[in-house]
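Anyone? Bumping this.
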Amino acid sequence: MKALKIIVLAKQVPDTRNVGKDAMKADGTVNRAALAAIFNPEDLNALELALQLKDKVKGSTLTILTMGPGRAAEVIREGLYRGADNGILLTDRKFAGSDTLATSYALAQTIKKMKDFDVVFAGRQAIDGDTAQVGPQVADKLNIPQITYAEEIVDVNDKEIIIKRRLDRGVEVVSSSKPVLITVHSSAPDCRPRNAKLLMKYKHSKTVTEVQDMSEDYLDIYQTRPYLKIEEWSVNDIEVEDRALGLGGSPTKVKKIENVVFKAKESKKLTPLDEDIDDLMKELIENHTIG
Amino acid sequence: MANFYNDNKDLKFHLHHPLMKKIVSLKEKDFEDAGKYDYAPVDFEDTMDSYEKILEIVGEISGDIIDPNAESVDKEGPQLIKNEVVYARGTQENYEALTKAGLVGLALPRRYDGLNFSVVAYVMSGELVSRADAGFANIWGLQDCAETMHEFASEELKDEFLPRFSEGATAAMVLTEPDAGSDLQAVQLKGKPITATYDKEKDTYYLNGVKRFITNGDADIQLVLARSEDDTADARGLSLFVYDRTDQAVVIRRLENKLGIKGSPTCEMVYTNAPAKLIGDRKMGLIKYVMSLMNSARLGIGAQSTGLGEAAYREALKYAKERVQFGKPIIEFPAVYEMLRTMEVRNKAMRSLLYETARYIDIYKAYNYIAEDRSLTSDERKEAKKYQRLADVFTPLLKLISSEYANSIAYDSIQIHGGAGFMKDFPIERIYRDARITSIYEGTSQLQVVAAIKGVSAGGYLNRIKEFEEEKVNPELEYLRKILQEMTSEYEAMVSFVNERNDNEYLDFHARRLVEMAGNIIIGYLLLQDTMREEEFRVTAELFIKTGRSENIQKADYIKNSELKDLGIFKYPN
């Protein structure tokens, strides 16, 4: 079948799964410096499905698109190490403070600029905001169909792509024409490990901004190997209206943030008696831990 | 989210040994591959950075995939279905992950799709995988066969077989026969011999006979030792062949049911007119090629033992911190913490010996490959020879000591677990069973002593010890060097004492004691050098040297008080 152009939307996020005591600043905002920046976990699932699609349809190309500060280029390198062909870092001060609406606007305009594409993959949601809105909004702005909660590519042919979705009470198999946007659930396969050869091939890949701090020893190979150049786009590279970007283009405002202080102890001692177990069961049902 | 490379800083320490500068420059020959392959390094730092990053991938796969699979692989094991060995589900998953990550055939040069990994880095990846699952490490470690083919096979065979490794081909070394175990010279002497007959027209040999205890016997690429010369009965009649599984001329008769490493299939195989190609020259099969293969395999057991030791130690440490008895964690009791610290010291000790040995092998092999392109200068030849000799005496010493240590650490780890360790509930019972084979296969400990005693009688160990003695040591470590010097004099005295008897059986009788005495001194010096580079090793060096001294005193005392006639007390009449 005809080769596909695949795009994966990926985000660099603070590792909120390993939160230490200094994860939050006194003013209630996330202390990004104290948290490792990682590839958003469900975006890795999305990358895996995208790679599987690329493996399936010979000649297909896979581009990683990420919006974020300069260091988010790391997400693109991680993609290259696993089999992506190239990447675009969308970065500009004007994007700062974007909510999901402004983000999806910027991403959609970038994808339009990238012209033809067949399948866009994205993780269901990011572990920092947990909105699960960006993927669907991008699809809406591109005016293409969307499939959410994907966990498996069942089949693909020139006409359609068939996807298994993971829902609360079962699975659903749906098909869609292309182009299509697919958001991927964490029940999809884990992303494959980095490939040793690809890692060695791409480890010196850099954006133009990063090159300025690059060790001189590797400038030479950077200049002679075009694939080491990671595209870096700013607002000037895409057609956007400034007022729809960043904080100004974000109708969502954070009204209040509260620090949650765990009052209850994490462990509780029970005697192995029927009534103690009974009490525990009642408590768990009452606070909806089970049932 | 476990990474077995990143969670053990000793690995980084050994990887960044000063000698690596030399090793990398020999391996990468002025970085000539950088112009030809997009994944080749451009300088020393770039090479080391790649080693580290790739070891991180191995560490991640070991921690996140292989280790979690180990229990089910041990339970499930491989199955024999329609003459085909089907790996346990977890084994398949492990191998696929490593293949996809480009980690099979990683020691091969780039022209065969390999990563041109140095022996040190390759062995380290073996240690990581072994810590996760020692049985699986066998299947993966059999890529050593690629190295043997690379060293000795013809260009055509290399072009045909070697690139298949990076695509995930599995391999087996097919040596043992029902009547030829430790004594491989006996291959095809008795029972159903495996023979090779030559068809000149097709330039093909045909193998016939039975092989037993073959790890991963159903592999895609099989290196088979067989008798090619009629009317011979010793090693000189044996040649090495490569058999391609796609030829379908082998029947797997049975899979063994083993104590440990249960995920690794052990096969009995019948070759019936199985077509095979000769590797290298006839008659050199056992004498040269299998000896080389064995040496790689023994180094591999060193890595496997170190990985097992690390796993067993970590299990014990975790348990001892959590288990509360008499109102406190058991790690606070002297009987327990002494045991734990001793395990840790032994683990670090064998690791130092492992990477030292790997460095020697790295250097002389790199010279051998350079010699294929140009003649070596006389200095280079001398150096290559020196390191080859060191590798020859260090390899059996490593195999002996590391496998025995792995067993002792696993034994003590169960002891620390108490009754819980005897149950199937903790990983340690599997690790303990897996460790047991290390002192048996690829040559038993007793046979390692036979190889290592040459290092005692020909002075190989002593020469190296004398070199160690010359090396600079900080004043505050001088007291440890002094102990090692005393141990050396005592060792020399015992060697002369035994030699003066001028009796081979007497020498054999004390061989293990003498080899272990040398081992204690050598490891003592290695840990002293480690301490010079990294102060944290001081405790290890001190504990090891002190224990080593008392062990050596005991051995010397035993030797001094033994007479020729004592052998008779042990000996069973014919």
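Late reply, but here is one note on the structure posted above: The two ends of chain A are 48 Å apart (CA to CA).
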